[in-house]
Amino acid sequence: MTDLEFHYRRLLRVYPAGHRAAYEEEMIGVLMDGAEPGRRLPSPADTLDLLRAGLTVRLGRSFNLQRGTGWRDAAAVTGLLIALALAAIATGRFLNGLSLLARFDDPLRAYGMNGVLLIDPAARSIIWVLVSGAALLGLRHIAAVLAASGILIELATVFFWVGVAPWQSLRLTWAPTVAVLAFAAFATAVRARPAPAVLGRRGMRWIVAATAFVVVTQVVLTAGSGRISVPFSTSVLEFWIPLVLLIAAVRSARPAVRRRVAVLAFASLTVPFVFLLWWDWTALSFAVHITPGIVTSQLIVLVLTPVVLFAGGLATLWAGERFMAVRRGQVTRYE
Amino acid sequence: MTDVPMREPTFLVLTALAEEPRHGYAVIEDVAAMTGGRVRLRAGTLYAALDRLRAEGLIEVDREEVVQSRLRRYYRLTGAGERSLAAETARLREQATIAERRLRARHTELGGAPA
User: Fold this and answer.
1) Does the N-terminal or the C-terminal CB of chain B have fewer CB atoms within 10 Å?
2) What is the dihedral of CA B3, B4, B6, B7, to 10 degrees?
3) pTM tops 0.90, yes or no
4) What distance in Å separates the CA atoms of residue B86 and residue B77, rounded to the nearest whole number?
5) Cα angle at A224 between A219 and A225, to 5 degrees?
6) Which residues in chain A have their CB less than 8 angstroms from residue B23's CB?
């Protein structure tokens, strides 16, 4: 083997193994035929061309392998799950506000007006209930447009609270972040099957059961506040049981889709937990004044949390699916 | 087959194979000759196009030879490839005709004077 051929073969390693198995010998022949006599190293133009084409094949192949594997369907279901979660949180706050108004005659006053503190939970409840409704009815475009409005409402809520309680305002910033993730999921799912089609009738029954359970629980707990006591943490009713019902719903999707829903939903819905844990620890333990450093670090946490969780989930998913494919003895197109 | 216009390398590769089955290096040489040396395909670009055209069913392997201990694979146009090349040729001709007609009209309106 000449030096030139050796260098060409090294360059061709940028191609996936399957592509090399199919074309390497042929390409080496073409490259050697086209090389000027006496050349020992590949020309810069050939080098760039092979790197560009090899990387394109690699990226294109990764993309093609992921096409039709259920990411869009998973995004449709994830969008619905996020919207339901945001609706549940907002309606919980709204009902709690009504309860304060009724039981303690709390005027919920802000900016010199009574009842103003009910505006943001009311607006957030309405928008996320509408988004959930659109997603449940399979109205993909409308769900995406409403989710975009949800981002604006969540941002407006953050700015509203700046004048009322700045610390609370910063603490609320997880909500626009999750709203952006909901919008991203719905925008991705615009060309997918709607969530009801992905989950099937059985899955939708579990979704309806989870929604009904949350509604009844919230109403009963709010109405009976101070009179009803449960022998366990209310988080069992407000969080764990709905979570189990939603997991049961997702299990109705085909395996590839439900694995992707797990990755997407985990990356999205863990954001508030991670952020609030970090924020309460920072704010309650160290911070005295709101500084640009605190705001910057909270933005970094908000951006990095879903990215890191998604990357971790994706790596686990790919490793798991690759392992399963190897076990099943699947081979690539080139092999 | 799609309605998306073909990229030039794809069009030229199909044109090279329309005459007879050719191996990779012969395609490069023929394309360079057809275009008066303006287009000289490089191996990476050529094999990206050949792989894609094979996957789309527009070309197929005709035969393989070993020359001086190197593999040479000859490719030929399939029926689908022929139809695709014909459709693209018609599209280009139609556009060229429109451009030609407009240039002629422009020349006439301006009384033959350069604008």
Assistant:
1) C
2) 180
3) no
4) 12
5) 100
6) 26
Residue of B nearest to A12 (CA): B44
Q: How far is B47 from chain A (nearest CA, A)?
A: 8
Distance between CA atoms of A73 and A128, rounded to whole angstroms?
A: 20
Instruction: Indicate the residue type of A237.
Output: L
Number of Cβ within 10 Å of residue A317's Cβ equals 16
**Distance, CA of A268 to CA of B87 (rounded, Å):** 47
Residue A3 and residue A35: Cα distance in Å, rounded?
12
Contact call for residues A173 and A272 (beta carbons, < 8 A): no
Give the residue from chain A lying closest to B73, CA to CA: A26
Pick from B28, B45, B73: which is nearest to A26 by CB? B73
List pLDDT tens digits, range A256-299: 899 999 999 999 999 999 988 888 887 777 666 777 877 888 88
* Average pLDDT along chain A: 86
Helix (H, G, I), strand (E, B) or coil at B113: coil
Q: Are B71 and A45 a contacting pair at CB < 8 A?
A: no
Which residues from A are below 8 Å from B46, CB to CB?
30
pLDDT per residue over A106-141, tens digit each?
777 666 667 778 888 999 999 999 999 999 999 999
Is the CB of B25 less than 8 angstroms away from the CB of A33?
A: yes
Q: How far apart are CA A258 and CA A204, in angstroms?
A: 14
Chain A residues with a Cβ under 8 Å from any Cβ in chain B? 19, 22-23, 25-34, 45-46, 49-54, 56-57, 333
**8 Å CB contact between B58 and B49:** no
pLDDT tens-digit map of B17-75 = 999 999 999 999 999 999 998 999 999 999 989 988 988 889 999 988 888 888 889 99
A interface test, pick of B46, B64, B70 with most A CB neighbours within 10 Å? B70
Which residues in chain A have Cβ-Cβ distances shorter than 8 Å to B44? Answer: 46, 49-54
* Cα–Cα separations (whole angstroms), residue A288 to A161, A283, A284, B57, B75: 18, 8, 9, 68, 74
ipTM: 0.84
CA distance A292 to A284: 17
Q: Could you tell me if A253 and A198 are in contact, meaning their C-beta atoms sit under 8 angstroms apart?
A: yes
